[in-house]
Amino acid sequence: MAGALDRVNIPDKGATYVIGTVSKALGHDISSVTLSRSSIRRSRCRNREKQARVEQEFIHNTPLLLHWDRKLLPDITANKETVHRIAVLVTGGGEEMLLGVLKIGSGTGKQQAEACLTTFDEWGIRQQIYGLVFLIPLPVILD
Questions:
Q1: What are phi and psi of 70, to 5 degrees?
Q2: Is residue 83 a contact partner of residue 98, using CB atoms and an 8 Å limit?
Q3: Closest to 95 measured CA to CA, from 125, 65, 129
């Protein structure tokens, strides 16, 4: 649970309250649950170290395939405009990892390629990409 709270940036002190409330709601005896701020902090640090090792091993030791998809979505800022976003994912060795969901200026192929290459360079994995996965709609054949 500490890992989930870590992913949504709940501070350690707030995580203590959330874990206590959820534990109580699930019927656990609060006196038997470890609810110290320091124990939650240690758990979060262990989770981060484990995740970093998994990512490092997966990303840098496996041939990867690139998957991407562009969508026109509402902007998450205060304005009500729509923006082009591209999700950049890689798969390899039976694993899958989302590298980023970037805002791009337009939906052109050039913009999409530049976003993918920028993401690869940020992760240092340009040399790991061995293939591209395309989703091509197949024509429907009616009898």
A1: -105, 140
A2: no
A3: 65
Q: Which sign, positive or negative, has the C-alpha torsion 114, 106, 99, 2?
A: positive
Using alpha carbons, select from 122, 48, 45, 46 the residue that is nearest to residue 90.
Answer: 122
Q: CB count, 10 Å around CB of 15?
A: 22
What CA–CA distance (Å, rounded) separates 25 from 102? 38
* Parts of the chain with a pLDDT under 70: 2-4, 7, 78, 136-143
Spans of all domains in the chain: 2-60, 62-133
Helix (H, G, I), strand (E, B) or coil at 85: strand
pLDDT tens figures, 90-130: 988 888 888 888 888 888 889 999 999 999 888 888 888 99
- Which amino acid is located at 45 in the chain? C
Question: Could you tell me which residues are beta bridge partners of residue 131?
Answer: 65
